[in-house]
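#lab-general

N.A. 3:47 PM
ok so I finally got the sequence cleaned up, no stray characters, all 404 residues accounted for. can someone with queue access submit it? mine expired

B.Y. 3:52 PM
send it over

N.A. 3:53 PM
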Amino acid sequence: MVIVKLKIVKIENLNERLPIIVDDDGIPNDHLNTFIIQELRGQADATVKSNAYSLMHIARFADKVSISIQDEMCSSCLTKPTLFNALIIHLQEVAQSQTSNVVALHQKQVQPDYFDRRIDVCKKYFKYLYELGIAKRRSDDKNLIILDKTFNRLITKLDNRKLKDKTISTKTGLSKIEQTSLFMGLDNIGFFAWNKSTHIRNALMIHIYYATGVRKGELASLTIPNCHTKVRSPYIQTTQNVKHLDPRTEVPHEKTRERIIPISKQLAKQIDEYIIHRNQSKDAKRQPPFLFLSSHAPHLPLSMSGFSNVFSAIIDAIPSLNSLGPHKLRHTFFENLDRHMHKNNYDAAKKTKIKNLVGGWSPSSKTSENYEKLATEEQCVEVLTEFQSEQDGLFNLISEDIPF
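B.Y. 4:20 PM
back already:
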């Protein structure tokens, strides 16, 4: 079967849409789609779709070299060097359209992060096939020990080919000057050519990203009942939506842990003011209680592309912001948080505990370190400047005692 495309299908009675792999006649591949349903679902739609594309790329490799990967995982596990190397080369290549008759002489390569994600899908898919294979063998089969060692060697070889430890992430949040430029624009209705209601909505959206560090999917799935603005200490709650039917084609999902995030009374007031504007339309009132709705009738929940368009408009109006999005603001939040805790002398254990709770990571996670590069650089300059001043002072004292 020639694998040609993905098709998005809605799971009946669930707020979930899944990609399935079909051939050029639209016939699903049951084996690959079973893997998608059992092993890939449960993450953000965009992540599941990306992983399904990687799976499709792996299946094309099997077609290209005329092997059954399922048979390989039950026997030699790609131990033949030429086969394993061919797989790595294939994973590095940008996928070509199956309907194209053009063959590139110099195939383009995917970015390191995307290559590593393909490796991860490979490992998960191979493990799935391996476990299916050994489940059919007798428990006293003497070859099981040998096969297990062979499979584990394959997984180790795949891990060793990953590039993430060989590349340095350069992602940072907004500088202080960029933050000032952004909020000067948001404080000026008309600056971004939005009407008043749209400006109120978009400004609130940016403020929540900036003040809480939530992810795009978390904000897109935030509901009015989960905005607790009337209590003594206001907060928002990020949680997976299982109550309300979501009409969006791309349904947002929570990527990190469900959590409660405190907000200021000023931000709580801003949310309340927006909700009043949101509910002025009867169509809007009839929509599921997601906080952010489209500006256009019938005011459906704001699509994921709608969230992205807000940032595009800001970049167009402020050329100095050459990149801006939810992830950029998440970096900005954690850098600002780290600056605050450094200024107030929080110890390392307390800083990690707070960041992981707010970020939705496990208690022992070190992920926050990737989100505070600018703050770390500033602290490095501060420490080195003080250190070098001390060194200069010591050098001057020594120089005074040395006769020339």
